[in-house]
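Entry 12.
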Amino acid sequence: MAITALSERLRQAYLALPLSNTAKQRLVNVLYLAAGPAFRGMVHYETWKRAHSAVIAAPPAIRDLPRAQLESETTFQPASEPLVSIIVCGQHGYLAALRCLHRIASHRPAASFEVILIDDACGDLEMDRLTRIPGLRIETETVPIGYARCCNRATDLARGEYLHFLSDRILIHDGWLDTLLWAFDTRPDCALVGPKLLLADGRLQAAGGVVWRDGSAWHFGHGDDPARSDYSYLRETDYCSGVAIVIRRELFNRLGRFTVTDTSTNCEDVDLAFKVRASGARVYLQPCAQASQSPGRDENAKSVGRRQLENAHAIRTAWTNVLDAEHRPYDGGVRIARERLRLRRTILVLDQYVPKPDRDAGSRSVWHIITTLVADGWNVKFWPHTLWYEPVYTGRLQTLGVEVIYGAEHSDRFGSLLEELGPSLAAVVINRPMVAKEYLFQVRRHSQAKVLYYGHDIHYLRLREQARVLGARPSGEQRLMARLEPRIWKLSDVVMYPSDSEVAAVRALDPTIEARQIPLLAFDSFGAPRPGKRLERPKLLFVAGSGHRPNQDAAHWLMHDVLPILRKRGVVFELDVVGSHVPEQLQRFRALDTQMLGPVSDDELDRLYRTCDLAVVPLRYGAGVKGKVVEALRWGLPLVTTPAGAQGLAGIERIVSVCTDPAGFAGQVQHLLADPVDYEKMSRDMIEFAKARFSRDAMRTVLGEALRPDRTTVSAPHRLSAVPAAGLRAGA
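Predicted 3D structure (tokens):
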């Protein structure tokens, strides 16, 4: 109890500081670093500690194993119908080829595969020893023909649907092939994909490539830290180095394979990427797949500069029209060039932190907005105000193709980001008032992008209701929000809330503000109606992260006032309470019929919604649509709630039980558990209600309307006239 009270007092003091959010965040970092243990157990400190101490996992170092071990452990099991034909070009001798093959054998993918090695007459007499490797198919050239011709030659032997070309100097990492194939599954326009390539010392060799208008090509990020956010998300790229790429065999043959000439150029990979795009498909970097260059000196290093000039001339000659039409002049905007950003097809999403959809409803809502935008073909960037790398959650967005900006080096670069995105930026989606307070004015000053503000709930209304229920005086936070939120609405082009009542409140303040109702969540599938039956020992479900004050109050009300009534009436039940940060004052309510499950995964939460018998949402105050109510609607899990729980869902009171006092709440729980007919009807009606309002198509429609480029965007100067020159911080 003392920790919770201290946390709340510190939060109020934090809000009252006359500093920008960025300055406040720096102050928190210093405070927690200096005296962290003193805050142990506080929600905000525990969250900060987890994210601040996170280390972006680097691939394990590749050990140079004894030759005998390499030979004994390198075996392959032939696949009768391989999905992938891995083609290794042997140009650097027996030991290099053996190391490459051993990595494949010891990091077997889930996909079926075959391995074909083509010996490019490398001159190593020991190459014959590779014939002893079980399951390996070998083709030997009598004279060196080069990497591209070797790959073309081996294609005639391949049986897989996909071709994976590998230089024998490449050492793959765990999961490399399955994640490369995953790009084809998630991006229907993907025709060629390559991994993030590392140098032998662990630095970045290439995260895709950039081709400039003069035909010159860059290995993007060469020599940099491979863990930086710039290099860590699935994205389109001009080309991927041919030493490790995957392409469909049918397309490779249809495009004429690698183009080879008798000149000294070696730009076949760049040329192939251009041919792929000419066919209407795209080339992707998949950074989840990683491969390292094995140690060793490149014999041709001295001629790199000359070859680069020859390569640029060859590409310029072959693809003049494409380069002039689609590529930028040298160093003319690296961000746009590195991922082929299109005019007004990028959306920047801002929030306090990376969404954790299994932790809170707000995160789940942001996640559904982002996934809908990605599915509709938008290039999405995500800026968390904390700039923290969140283990697991950051990676989830990156695998979708969302660039998540993190790292201290970006702390003062928000304005630069807006400038770099330039005309590619169509819109900025800003979540929550304190984030808007920090960034909205900058967006308006330095960008022509459309501004969509998603408030989640109207904070000052929620805080006002909280004070009324608890009999407290208006807080400083309530007064701050009452001034801040209307200013944000006036500065935004579109204001979005999940609740129809909150949209009405915005319009009532100023009818010229474009306010829209957006589905809190967007589902692709829904549950099946529950059959009515008598339940001997029903399971009740209450989903609520206790880091949120309304949830703490609801849990206390449920356990202190409602459950004792059920027990007194002889109702036998089990209650599962799901959510993180269970406060001390709730621990004393632990009982044989009550389980505090803590945070659970998305899959486990879905299982609970499918297998429990009744949902309870006993909120006494709050604002906006409640995620736990929407989830229950989706799964058709009969529900008992309160007016606060039903808020923002017009008509829901005709479907579910809405109660105002403990006795009524307990009575409705008892009635539903005993009446199979009403139970089954409620389940069926809930699913129909959810399908009409919380489908993916419903969210797609709202976002599509809000983002329509032909809609008139109120000019930035006009909007800015609504606030003082000092911006949103004035008077706040």
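Annotation: The chain is about 40% helix and 15% strand. The chain has four domains: 2-52, 74-338, 346-522+709-729, 539-694.
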